[in-house]
Amino acid sequence: MFNAVLDAILDHRLAPGTKLVERDLAELLGASRSAVRAALSRLGHSLLVELRPNRGAVIANPSAAETRDVFEARRVIESAVLQRLARGLTAKQAAELRAFIAEESRAYERGDRKTGQRLSIRFHKLLSELAGNAVLDRFMEGLISRTPLLTLAHRGPKLAYCGADEHREIVEALARKDAALAVRRMGAHLASLESQLRLDDEEPLPEPTLAAALNGHAA
Prior knowledge:
Order of helices and strands: HEHHEEHHHHHHH
CATH class of the largest domain: Mainly Alpha
Number of strands: 3
Helix content: 55-70%
Oligomer: single chain
CATH topology of the largest domain: Four Helix Bundle (Hemerythrin (Met), subunit A)
Number of helices: 10
């Protein structure tokens, strides 16, 4: 059940502010009410869902200020990740990153934007995993899990996403063990992503039904 809701968020099928009713979720996903409550608690811990006493749960609806704060935090954490990774990057890790970028590029080239976007999100988590600092990795997991909600809540004329080209440039800087260049490229990359968002005078998004958002998913 946790994965079904998480997938719907990552795929931008559950909009910020969507109400999550335990009874409806249990029926749609074929799960027990206790399993639903446990999943909602886990989603709340990940800050993807707001658990409101006596009012139920809703998909988190981050403000423009919170969105800016998340990007600021990402710049700090990812800078630390890249500096650590550049110092100790092995040839095997560099090859793994290049293979990942090639897979990401192929997804976009064949028009599979859904897979491409998932890989683009995964790229940032992969960097933190390879850096080998468990604390930084946990911070990154929390920040990255919030990003799809931010881009959906504050999307501009088109949905913001990473793409593969800037990721490739970051990897090549890491492969040369040029930490400063990798950090600059990541900073420019995150700034570009943030600039695609509409953080002023945003209009509320239409709220989809749970049935439409979770159609076809099982617990």
